[in-house]
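Example S7 (structure tokens).
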């Protein structure tokens, strides 16, 4: 949809919503959303702009409200979900605060004004960077890439954010970071005591929201806490000036607002070298933003029972942050809690985000002085509330829903964040998760089935004698069906499995190993090394390795490693598929095991006499058969023709093929000397389901339906022997199929 068409569509939707019964609920809901947005935004300002840059809190407040206004309106219009509420984010606020702290330490000795300008420049830079990357991911439909982030690492991200929010609440109240190293000093100076009301408010608010689960609980707590604070001031006979001097309220100067933004000192005076040195924080902000948008969008899909376009959300959030970044604002995107709040009030309208965004803009224009009356313990309490929400979800709730290894990884990341820092925790989490994944995947068996040639035969129908011989000698064939990606751990598992089979005294001598690569997605260098070891073992122990259905890229790797040789000396040989490789092994076994007498061609009467040597004169069967001497590529049966005959292969070989719609053919079975083809169609009187083609010159006997009926009338004993012979053939085929299926299942 083009931009003009999109704008026309949205204007039509907004007019319909404004003229409908949604308008009043949207106004009520947007007022609640705007209030929570303002309180959250101001709490983030108190978290970020600490001594010695507290003088920039007014600029920060103005920028935070401008961000809320831009993002709220933009995301409400362009999000794929009508109820999206976007605000400056609690998930990135602690990282921004950490970045500000690092800048303050790095610029120790510089003027507060230059430090403050540098912090503002770093905030704007991070917002622009995040906006650019988010838009790129959405524009090129790469949103699903973030779904590959390990889930426990995401949990560690959020738990670490909860810890930073919790400790940041202490800094809002005291101006000093919470630290176990200087806990004694904090107790002596009364800093901990000043933080207690904030902790109590945040804890009670969190517990109330968690157990009562009503969308108005938190807004009501904020209002009641504010009213209670000013009642306490009145009873205690404290003036507003005394409250400001004691640090109980913000006391924002009157020169905040849109006018203040327009008169910001130029960012060219920022120390851009220091800004660029914050690359670790910028990376953390970027990763956290991407992961958080994924989590928020996925959770909102469940809450709204509606599919949301992740790539469109990334594009919209990217453009919104680019606009906010050029205005100097902080990173923001979809808020799960505030986007879910209208659902609880029965409202899903773009008007909510638009109206709340305009409300923030109006506050920025007309009422910035109101922020000077917000009690600090409420701002710190909101940070405690958010921090407890993250920590409870990933320390308490996660204990019951995560497997133990993942849960312990979340706790480990949280501990590293608390001790060493946010990026260190995130980086360590990704490294540990990757190592654990490699170890777990290495232990996954890439062998889906282990089959033996005595139970799993090729699709070649053999004579009864050959079939019995392969049943007894087929154990020389060891078949491994492989799957997945083969690398160092799993490749070594293949080698060890073959070596264990080689030395097993209870099994026949190993002569052939078939590796079926049909379900293999790739093979790394360590896998090539294991194949080289297997080739040397095969040469030493005298068995042959047959690689079937090998992808072209793996074949090239084999050739580059000189694993494929020509001639009879080759220890690793390529085959088109598993069936052809098994057929080759069976032919080799038959060549070795059959005597010269057994290799002689036997007629159908001779085969029948094996079953009925005393009861029937099987030589008379030839009176009912028609002898055919045919060349290679002769069609005995055409797919779709009626069934009126069966064929006995006395010498030569035929194949059963199915002709596909695209003109290609697929081999189903191969029939050799001493086998019968076409019997099922004859007995069931149905159309031929496949074609039968000779693969070499053949001598074949054909039995027509009329000849079979004539045999049944003239020689019932012969007909009975023939039918029993056919039953035995079919029974042996069913038995072989059952053995193959059992081997595959086991």
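Recovered sequence:
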């Amino acid at each position: 949809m083009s931009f003009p068409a999109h704008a026309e569509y949205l204007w039509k939707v907004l007019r319909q919503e404004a003229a409908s019964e949604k308008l009043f609920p949207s106004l009520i809901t947007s007022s609640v959303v705007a209030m929570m947005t303002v309180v959250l935004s101001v709490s983030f300002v108190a978290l970020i702009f600490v001594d010695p840059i507290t003088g920039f809190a007014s600029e920060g407040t103005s920028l935070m409200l401008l961000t809320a206004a831009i993002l709220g309106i933009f995301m409400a219009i362009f999000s794929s979900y009508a109820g999206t509420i976007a605000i400056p984010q609690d998930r990135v606020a602690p990282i921004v605060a950490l970045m500000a702290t690092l800048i303050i330490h790095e610029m120790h000795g510089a003027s507060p004004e230059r430090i403050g300008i540098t912090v503002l420049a770093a905030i704007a830079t991070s917002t622009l960077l995040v906006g650019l990357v988010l838009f790129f991911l959405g524009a090129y439909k790469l949103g699903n890439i973030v779904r590959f982030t390990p889930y426990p690492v995401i949990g560690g991200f959020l738990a670490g954010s909860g810890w930073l929010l919790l400790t940041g609440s202490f800094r809002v109240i005291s101006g000093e970071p919470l630290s176990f190293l200087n806990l004694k000093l904090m107790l002596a100076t009364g800093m901990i005591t000043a933080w207690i009301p904030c902790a109590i408010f945040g804890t009670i608010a969190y517990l109330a929201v968690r157990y009562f689960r009503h969308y108005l609980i938190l807004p009501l707590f904020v209002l009641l806490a504010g009213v209670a604070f000013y009642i306490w001031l009145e009873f205690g006979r404290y003036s507003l000036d005394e409250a400001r001097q004691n640090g109980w309220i913000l006391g924002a100067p009157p020169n905040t607002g849109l006018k203040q933004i327009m008169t910001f000192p130029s960012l060219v005076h920022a120390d851009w070298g220091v800004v660029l040195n914050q690359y670790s924080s910028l990376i953390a902000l970027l990763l956290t933003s991407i992961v958080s948008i994924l989590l928020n969008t996925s959770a909102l899909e469940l809450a709204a029972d509606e599919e949301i376009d992740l790539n469109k959300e990334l594009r919209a959030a990217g453009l919104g942050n680019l606009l906010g970044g050029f205005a100097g604002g902080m990173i923001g995107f979809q808020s799960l809690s505030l986007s879910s709040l209208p659902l609880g009030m029965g409202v899903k309208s773009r008007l909510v985000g638009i109206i709340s965004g305009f409300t923030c803009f109006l506050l920025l224009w007309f009422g910035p002085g109101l922020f000077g009356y917000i009690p600090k313990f409420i701002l710190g309490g909101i940070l405690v509330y958010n921090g407890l929400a993250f920590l409870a979800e990933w320390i308490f709730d996660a204990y019951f829903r995560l497997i133990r290894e993942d849960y312990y990884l979340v706790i480990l990341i949280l501990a590293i964040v608390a001790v060493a820092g946010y990026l260190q925790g995130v980086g360590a989490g990704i490294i540990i998760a990757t190592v654990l994944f490699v170890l777990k995947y290495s232990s996954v068996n890439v062998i889906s089935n282990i089959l033996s040639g005595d139970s799993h035969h090729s699709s070649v129908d053999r004579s009864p004698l050959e079939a019995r011989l392969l049943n007894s000698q087929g154990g020389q064939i060891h078949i491994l069906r492989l799957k997945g990606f083969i690398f160092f751990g799993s490749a070594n598992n293949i080698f060890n499995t073959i070596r264990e089979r080689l030395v097993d005294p209870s099994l026949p001598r190993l002569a052939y190993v078939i590796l079926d690569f049909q379900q293999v997605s790739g093979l790394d260098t360590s896998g090539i090394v294991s194949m080289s070891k297997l080739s040397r073992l095969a040469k030493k122990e005298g068995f042959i390795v047959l690689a079937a259905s090998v992808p072209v890229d793996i074949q090239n790797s084999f050739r580059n490693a000189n694993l494929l040789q020509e001639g009879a000396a080759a220890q690793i040989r390529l085959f088109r598929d598993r069936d052809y490789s098994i057929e080759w092994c069976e032919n080799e076994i038959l060549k070795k095991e059959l005597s010269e007498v057994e290799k002689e061609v036997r007629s159908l009467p001779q085969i029948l006499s094996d079953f009925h040597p005393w009861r029937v004169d099987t030589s008379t069967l030839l009176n009912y058969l028609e002898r055919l001497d045919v060349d290679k590529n002769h069609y005995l049966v055409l797919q779709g023709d009626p069934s009126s005959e069966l064929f006995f292969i006395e010498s030569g070989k035929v194949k059963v093929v199915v002709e596909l719609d695209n003109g290609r053919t697929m081999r189903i079975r191969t029939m050799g000397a001493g086998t019968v083809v076409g019997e099922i169609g004859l007995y069931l009187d149905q159309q031929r389901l496949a074609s039968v083609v000779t693969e070499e010159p053949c001598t074949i006997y054909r039995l027509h339906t009329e000849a079979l009926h004539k045999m049944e009338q003239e020689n019932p004993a012969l007909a009975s022997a023939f039918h029993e012979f056919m039953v035995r053939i079919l029974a042996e085929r069913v038995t072989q199929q059952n053995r193959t299926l059992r081997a595959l299942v086991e």
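Notes on this example. The longest strand covers residues 512-523.
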